[in-house]
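Supplementary material to the annual report.
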Amino acid sequence: MRSQNRTRLNSLRRAKLGLLGLASGALLFAGIAAAQDKLGKSPRLTGPSPATENIPAPPLARPVTDDIRKMRNYPEQPPVIPHSIAGYQLSLNTNRCLECHRRQFTEASGAPMISVTHFMDRDFQILSDVAPRRYFCLQCHVPQMNTAPLVKNNFIDMTKIGKGRR
Amino acid sequence: MKRLRDFIVRIWTAIRRPAVHFSLGFLTLGGFLGGIAFWGGFNTLLELTNTEKFCIACHEMRDNVYQELTQTVHFTNRSGVRATCPDCHVPHEWTDKIARKMQASKEVWGHLFGTISTRQKFLDHRLKLAKHEWARLKANDSLECRNCHSEIAMDFSRQTPRAAAIHNRYLVRGEKTCIDCHKGIAHQLPNMTGIEPGWQAPPDLRGVRPDRQSRLDPHPSVPANLVNGPARR
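Predicted assembly:
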């Protein structure tokens, strides 16, 4: 039935459609041009510009290794890692992080235990060990480097919001 | 049986009889030079088997463990010191080296019969092979590590406080050895399920204050009820 309808389109309707298409095409083009203009002004976060250029990689920044716990910027923030993790193996076979941070080992290692939420699977059932969905620590917890931020950060601690301090 | 005995007796009498045609000078000097040639040749060949090039001549080593080594700090690092296979896997002392080389004849067997000839076979054997190395290094107090790293030469003030504290507590007191904690520093680890980290106290000492966890035997004059004192209760 649909094909029958299509063949019955009269010439007037076709012309109308064509005009509409042209107009929308022009609008789209203008929109893309404007967006590109904006994109060009925002800073590139990674890689050379233009992207096909080869530039030497900057030297690796030094990791923060002072072992002092960093305050979290908001309660749900995954704590950051205040030590180097260079060469740590984190695979299906072994998890170097848990060799210290697993509940059973914290007494000897002195490391903070993984959070209680990490024992919970997605159905909120408590398991006896880290839940599989929490196994790969570096998905959320990252070591810190002594380096300048890539973009300016306007984050305000929520306790300071509305107190006239910025 | 009688023929064998005759043979041995004949050899023995030949050895015992003084030489008729050769001079004493020829025999002693010849024996001396021959000994040098034999010993030199033997040791040269032995050292030839003690090179990385020799180790990775077999595809089992080249495709598995060597590739993993190239990703670690023992292969490339900021000071440019590199450890090759024999640095960690063969003792440097001659007697220990010969003992290890005799053990290694098992590896020739493994190569000939393809024990780890494929990647999957290697992965299947990985835990067993790793346990052999851990046991060997545990038994010789991490001798091969200590060929380069010694606690005497360690500047604890330049280690991170955490590392310095752990080394002070376990390494200096001789309670643990390098391999207890530093497993998998040059290769990928096998499935470590059930293998506890090195700093985990042995089961009978868990819950005991860390400074009383020493496994060293107390002096015989210390009364038994004072050993490990009140904290043990």
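The radius of gyration of chain B is 26 Å.
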